[in-house]
């Protein structure tokens, strides 16, 4: 709890058996009221390990994708009475030690959403982000800031937190079931004028923490451009896009 708010951490998991325990061990238990893991039909022991750690675990009968996994996470978090929800990847890429900082911002009343940026404070390259991903991140962020009329240091981190008001207001069921979900959700939050704060965050790139190859990254990058252009055209009244319509 913080400021009388129920704090939930959601762990959208896919093949996280090697890293789940390490991630879990660094979650500040005194702060967090509920931990939910959704296992997207992993091929390894992810669900078994989660249950052993006493994490509330939901298992997809078949693999539905990263976005679909998050939809399950957020739905469960709200059903279980969360006031603030932080998504943390169980691949030990982002530091759970920063949960307190993120929760603090989300319970301060100043922010509806918080993202942990690897770009603020040089965390990305230092943590081993491949150069092509860094350059794409910077380029896409530059374009998105213009098209979404915002000022974020990046739109591509997987470490994000939301108040329950945001989660209830956004039509997440209209977002993709794939990786572009993250970007669409952020664009929806901007569309609804929610205030988004940022903290700086180190990142770690190692085999188990990063599986997305050049092909999938390219598909994601094109999806980002499409989402941002659709957002601008929708705002200009030139199209009616299902992601953003009321
Ligand atoms: N649900 C689901 N999640 C996936 C799948 N593939 C990767 N992920 C998750 O998506 C997140 C981002 O993938 P990751 O390989 O860590 O990418 P990177 O860290 O951006 O290089 C991680 O939490 C993965 O566990 C999948 O097929 N289904
Ligand atoms: Mg990762």
From TrEMBL:
The keyword Disulfide bond does not apply. Residues 8-168 form the Glycosyltransferase 2-like domain. One of its GO terms (molecular function) is transferase activity. InterPro entries: Glyco_trans_2-like (IPR001173), Glycosyltransferase_2 (IPR050256), Nucleotide-diphossugar_trans (IPR029044). Keywords: Transferase. The keyword DNA repair does not apply. Pfam families: Glycos_transf_2. This is Glycosyl transferase family protein. The lineage of its organism: Bacteria, Pseudomonadati, Pseudomonadota, Alphaproteobacteria, Acetobacterales.
């Amino acid at each position: 709890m913080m400021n009388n708010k129920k704090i939930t951490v959601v762990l959208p998991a896919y093949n996280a058996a090697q890293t789940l325990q390490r991630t879990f061990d660094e979650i500040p238990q005194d702060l967090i009221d509920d931990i939910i893991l959704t296992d997207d039909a992993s091929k390894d022991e992810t669900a078994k390990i989660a249950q052993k750690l006493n994490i509330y675990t939901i298992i997809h009968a078949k693999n539905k994708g990263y976005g679909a996994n998050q939809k399950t996470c957020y739905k469960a978090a709200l059903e279980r009475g969360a006031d603030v929800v932080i998504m943390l990847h169980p691949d030990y890429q982002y530091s759970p030690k920063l949960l307190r900082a993120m929760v603090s911002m989300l319970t301060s009343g100043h922010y509806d959403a918080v993202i942990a940026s690897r770009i603020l404070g040089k965390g990305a390259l230092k943590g081993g982000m491949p150069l092509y991903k860094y350059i794409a991140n910077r380029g896409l962020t530059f374009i998105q800031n213009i098209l979404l009329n915002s000022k974020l240091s990046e739109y591509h981190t997987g470490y994000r937190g939301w108040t329950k008001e945001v989660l209830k207001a956004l039509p997440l069921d209209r977002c993709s079931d794939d990786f572009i979900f993250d970007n669409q959700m952020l664009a929806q939050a901007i569309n609804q004028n929610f205030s988004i704060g940022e903290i700086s965050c180190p990142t770690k790139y190692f085999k188990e923490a990063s599986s997305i190859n050049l092909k999938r990254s390219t598909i994601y990058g094109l999806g980002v451009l499409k989402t941002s252009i659709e957002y601008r055209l929708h705002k200009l009244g030139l199209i009616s896009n299902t992601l953003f319509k009321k």
